[in-house]
């Protein structure tokens, strides 16, 4: 994995972003170590948008994060994990071979997951009562029975 970015609640009520490979604080964030940044109070944040860019990345919302995330994996073999809110997870290219673990995990919330990308993916929705997945044909994408609506291409 190139980047393993996690968004989570730090010392309440602050949002923290971390990546073991290192992170650079952007506008509105404060660098707290070479691998972490704090990005304001949770109450003022209505959504989190992140793009993994090139490479094999993992973008994840911490289990304690109740803010909607919009994650785009970008080119590469990515893993996207939502949090407890209604999340949007998409990846433009999928994996080159059948993955041995979930490439999309919706967790709680009513999530929208788009894995129709011509590559291999494994989708797990978990919590929520109205998860929607747009996936490739069964030969490419494995989708668990925890997803309420599955649209195949």
From TrEMBL:
<dbReference type="InterPro" id="IPR011049">
    <property type="entry name" value="Serralysin-like_metalloprot_C"/>
</dbReference>
<protein>
    <recommendedName>
        <fullName>Calcium-binding protein</fullName>
    </recommendedName>
</protein>
């Amino acid at each position: 994995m190139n980047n393993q970015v996690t968004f989570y609640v730090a010392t309440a009520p602050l949002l923290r972003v971390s990546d073991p490979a290192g992170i650079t604080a952007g506008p509105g964030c404060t660098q707290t170590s070479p691998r972490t940044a704090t990005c304001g109070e949770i109450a003022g944040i209505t959504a989190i948008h992140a793009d993994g860019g090139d490479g094999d990345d993992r973008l994840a919302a911490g289990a304690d994060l109740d803010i909607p995330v919009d994650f785009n994996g970008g080119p590469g073999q990515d893993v996207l994990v939502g949090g407890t809110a209604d999340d949007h997870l998409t990846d433009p290219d999928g994996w080159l071979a059948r993955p041995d673990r979930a490439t999309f995990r919706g967790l709680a919330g009513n999530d929208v997951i788009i894995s129709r990308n011509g590559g291999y993916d494994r989708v797990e929705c978990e919590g929520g009562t109205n998860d929607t997945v747009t996936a490739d044909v069964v030969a490419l994408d494995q989708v668990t029975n925890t997803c309420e609506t599955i649209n195949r291409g």
